[in-house]
Amino acid sequence: MIYQLIENGRVDEIADILADDPNCANEPVALSQDETATAHPLHRVCDAVFEGKITDEKAVEIARIFLEHGARVDGNGFEENKDTPLIAAASLHAEKVGILYVESGAELSHGGCRGGTALHWAAWTGCAKLVKSLIDAGAPLEKRCADFNMTPLGWALHGRKYGGDGNLQPQTTCAKHLIGAGAKTEDYSGENLKFLSPDDAADKELIELLGNAG
To answer: Which of 95, 126, 140, 208 could form a disulfide with 170 if both were Cys (CB 3.0 to 4.6 A apart)?
Structure first.
């Protein structure tokens, strides 16, 4: 029932339920009655954004209601390779929700799916404002993911090539934020450059930036 209210943007009804029973703010939520898989409500808010059910702005409004009624910003604890709500926001394109979670004190260094932190995922999906928010909050720049042994900068470059045409400019901005904050470029420049092509006009700016930084 809670997810149906989330995906329909029923803020007042959610607030009424949580006022009556604050425990609901942290109870695992299924996507439907037929689903057995569950996730924390703050994660499900991000699912609704990814599925196009609600806007990022509406999701922020809903997430605030959950937080105000005691929802734990990191969900129900940390499991290896399991996403926290912040990682869910970064990987599911719920950028404004992710910024809210950062501002609410979410853990920044946990490795979720594929061992990627929220900064890895935000860089890959091209959520440039969330990348900046994470950097400013002290997210680790050089932590390497479990599956690919890459830093967030590597994920930004990989996402630039494989994350979809709509993300190209945001991912360039993500890489600029990371390099400007001091991310090491050695693994992603010169002969070791993996994801950019000198023959691609759209890649030239990043290639030059990596070369200058390295």
So the answer is: 126
